[in-house]
Design goal:
The complex is a heterodimer of chains A (about 240) and B (about 650).
Chain A lengths: L5 E10 L2 E11 L4 E5 L6 H8 L7 E6 L2 E2 L5 H7 L1 E4 L11 H7 L7 H11 L1 H5 L10 H14 L4 E5 L7 H16 L3 E5 L3 H7 L2 E6 L2 E6 L1 H7 L1 H4 L5
Parallel strand pairs in A: 3-8, 3-9, 6-7, 7-8
Antiparallel strand pairs in A: 1-2, 1-4, 4-5, 9-10
Chain B lengths: L1 H31 L6 H18 L4 H25 L7 H22 L15 E4 L2 E4 H23 L1 H11 L1 H6 L4 H27 L3 H5 L1 H11 L5 H21 L13 H12 L21 H19 L4 H26 L7 H15 L4 H19 L7 H19 L11 E3 L4 E2 L2 E2 L3 H24 L1 H11 L1 H6 L4 H27 L1 E3 L5 H14 L4 H20 L4 H15 L5 H17 L27 H6 L2
Antiparallel strand pairs in B: 1-2, 3-6, 4-5
Classes of the chains: A alpha/beta (about 240), B mainly alpha (about 650).
Amino acid sequence: MSVPILEVVDVHAAYGRIEVLRGVDLRVPRGSVMALLGPNGGGKSTLLKVISGQMEVTSGDVHLGGVNVSGAKPAELARLGLCTIPEGRSVFPNLTVEENLLLMSYAGVPAEQVLETAFGYFPRLEQRRDQLAGTMSGGEQQMLAMSRALASDPALLLLDELSMGLAPLIVEELYETVGQIAQSGVSILCIEQFAKTALAVSDYAAVMVGGRVIASGEPDEINESMADVMLGGAA
Amino acid sequence: MTSLLAFTVLGLFTGAAYSIAASGLVLTYATTRVFNIAHGAMGMVMAFTFWDLAYRQGIPTPVALFLVLFVIAPAMGWFVQRVMMRGLGEAPVSVSLVVSVGLFVGLIGLAQQVWPPAARTVQPFFGEASISIFGVVVTAHQLITIGLAAVVAGMLYLLLNRTRIGTAMRASVDNHQLLQLYGGNPERVAALSWAIGASLAALAGILLTPVIGLDYFELTLLVINAYAAAMLGRLKSLPMTFVGAMSLGVLQSYAVAYLPSSGQLAGLRAVVPAIFLMVIIIALPQAQLRIGQVKGLVSVPVPSLRRSLLTAVGAVFLALAVTVGLSDANLLLAGTAATYAIVMLSLVLLTGYGGHLSLSQFTFAGVGAVAYIQLGSANLFGVFMAAVIAALVGALVALPVLRLTGLYLALSTLAFAVVMDKLVFQADFAFSTDGFLEAERLSVLGVVITNDTSYVMLMILAFLAVGITVLAVRRGPVGRILIAMRDSPAACGTLGLDQRWFRVALFGASAGIAGLAGALFASMRGTIAAAEFNVLASLPLLLIAVVCGVTSVTGAAFGGILLMLMPVVSSSNPGLAGLVFAVVGFGAVALGRNPNGLASLGFLAGRKVWGRYGDRLPIWTAEDVPPAQTGPSQTDPPQARPEEVTTR
């Protein structure tokens, strides 16, 4: 078996004295889509923060493509090919669409190419290129955020609650895009409350409860065995 | 007609210099959300550096200019951002402003230490070379300044709108964590904008020096002019900032030309920027409510009534024991410390509990002192009325900023203090132009307290009474509202609290306490000077209050003594006068992040002692001791400290 794109080994992390991650182990094979499910407060978003470098681990290691990246800064990871789309609207509301896209070139792709890719996937963004991102609808903002994932051709894409506060139709549309990104060979780790939507596009699934990954496997298995957990029964 | 044109040119010149300074201010504020009140002070220090290089060291002017603008000033801006201001953008305004006020005071002290007062002149660029346009003589220096302002405007526009790093500067204000996820480096972006800001401050300072002279304070207070200009663009829009700067420059020039140069309104010419600023602030639209932060400020615990009364009694006995043997001069110092401590109590209420900042607390004390003297009734009623008048003035200052947030309130108090300094305190009904007033000693219920020892005791009693009252207010429902409003104005809004009038009342109450201190002080001294109440006295007051702990009465007592000692130390070592300022300023930069200050360290130590030996002390019963999780307790009598120090 080849080296997994992401390997999390026995990671512990805490907010002050409250330990949130209590020994997380997770492997995302290269080129696959993994859905990270589980009830609120399970530590999913914290794990994403740890992987993206926004939060320090108290112990344990994070390997990206076989390289230990514990302690790296978010900006360094971003330039190495990790693309993180945090929860909420991950755009700069007081910049125009075009300026938002311009900043995406920090990850290493030339600005023209970013614009081309983004406008190719989402023509609506081109119509709004001079509009402030904060004045667009939630779905359009999320398209803009997804453009970064599309344009920067990342090695690993982290998605946190893409669906938050969006209408189901738009969520479906966005997950179609996620599917397209996955087709192009990008490895994806996504957190999602809409378990069904996420499982439909994923190759693997893992369930986090109480700061640990308690189960992982094929989407169907997880869906059957973990339905009650995912609905929050075991929280 | 020609004279009008001549004054317009002069106005455009100063306006151009203001616009350079103001755009630096806007740049730093817009990219890091830290308002650099020391912007003018940075320009001042850089102007002195330029003088030092070009005139003392004899380096050719272009080389000196290059060194200051492109090496020294950016290095200073970078250093200030990296070391002092880092991460302050997310902090409450009261914290970030205190740090930059610390820098302000520290830089003045540093400049006075490095370049002791002496006559220094800086020649305008290209000397007296000039051309004539429509019969108006325009000097080369003026032309250069106006030209540079245009260049700065153009470059900043290009930087912010046409480059990736400029876009990242604007993005980092929106969400600096997201910028990191994009692969950008918010720290570098912030340091760059401060480096540019410092360089612009230096340019403005150097351009203005030939006109206003190499003066510590004139150049430092340039920040008010720059701020006034920047407010027209609401600290965001650069084009509006330029419009504001130009109109302010021209307005000021016309004021010099056409307002009377003698009589009651003579001072009006000096306060045009401050008045301009106040008018703009009044015209600003309603600010949005700020949503509270999760990591709110943790305050020191509030002692129970019983505990504060017992401590006060202890303090009285200690004060009695100490003051009996003091010489007259030392007694006056003890009284001064008590005055300062009372003024600091007004900050405990306003800043410590309310989370608002005032840069003019001594001005309110001055209002109280003047009111006490001019009312002519040297009795308790007179003191009370002086406090009421100061409170009304304070409320009046807070009125225009009813709808605005902490930063604007704090900066308008700075403008207010300047107006009072230059206009009101010099009027006939206040200090008049010679700056001194005679005061009568206070009489209590018909008995004039001529004995200094008794009078100082009275002041200490007044301090204790105000302290107990402030603590009582904090424990009650008003105190809860204060803390709630400080921590999350938006949450209070949803509860249906009308914070606006509450804020005005809070400001008034705080000014009233300061006014009370001023009245008592005037009565003690017999002669007071306007200079004791000027704006530059209020800033160290705020800094020392924060360093010592602006959330506790103990901190106020401690701060009163320290502030009293400051001039004592600098008059016994005149060579170190600037250094004292610098130490206080940079001390506040270091400690300003924790408003609980040194006093909280004392509480922590006291708590440890209590934990070990507490059960052997029979004074306090068990229910007086706060439970462990609420934090440290006060074991040593806090108010006892004023007298301890004066004996040394």
